[in-house]
Specification:
By secondary structure, the chain is an alpha/beta fold. Helices cover 44% and strands 11% of the residues. The strands form 2 sheets. A 5-stranded parallel sheet has the order 2-3-4-5-6. α2 runs parallel beside α4 and α5 (97-109) packs parallel to α6. The chain is globular, with a radius of gyration of 20 Å.
Amino acid sequence: MLNSTTTPAEKRRALRAGLASGTLQRMPGAFTPLSARLIQEKGFEGVYISGAVMANELGLPDIGLTTLSEVAQRGGQIARTTDLPALIDGDTGFGEAMNTARTVQLLEDAGLAGVHFEDQVNPKRCGHLDGKEIVDEPTAVNRVRAAVRARRDPDFLIMARTDIRGVAGLTAATERAKALVGAGADAIFPEAMADLREFEAMRAAVDVPILANMTEFGKSELFTARQLHDVGVNVVIHPVSLLRVALGAMERALETLAAEGTLAARVPDMTTRARLYELVDYEAYADFDATVYTFDLGNNLG
């Protein structure tokens, strides 16, 4: 009721333990707080919070227009609803090294389990688009060092993302990853790997956990969890998938409503009222206050 029963510190320790377990940590992207609760119910190991999704939900492209306060607020709203650890996209740190340091502390305060920062220049763009620009190695390293220095909970995960593969090739990506680990990164997010062989090369290059981004319509093939595990990947994210599924369903429903004047034909596709109330734990609020839950869901409420 109200919030997760697991503290942020416990979630951070769980994320660390999961990454060290040898079991692939699966993190679908939550685009709302309620979707995070559904991810937990379906047995996944963590929740991912995508910067692209946060921007898109505001009707904006993923080019660095969201603010730190918007991201911290949304991240906190999602993290509080689930017992799972939540990893959030910190883009480029919302400025220079000092801004990156402040970002870490605000995200700690918001209850996140970890964050990743990338090595693009501003304005950034989606990691699977062409035409990206990458900062030089000293700037990328300084971002990571600032993040590590700023954290107060040593279990808060600092992950470094590198987008250099799409600009300068795989060798440049493995060398950048090594430098980021040397700066203190707890894990590496190599963006837009072309194939499993490239993930294997990244696994051989660093001795920290690595992440695979299985985003649809991107540069990487959509590998299975087993394939990724077998080449040494520790965590996989599906950042925009649930948003895409939801938007597709909403678009089709609106087309039906416009054409037929009613959504009666779409009702079988909808989450029932009873199921929705189950997800928000309505009855727990009744246990807390008997005046809240005074109706019968069996009385044609679905």
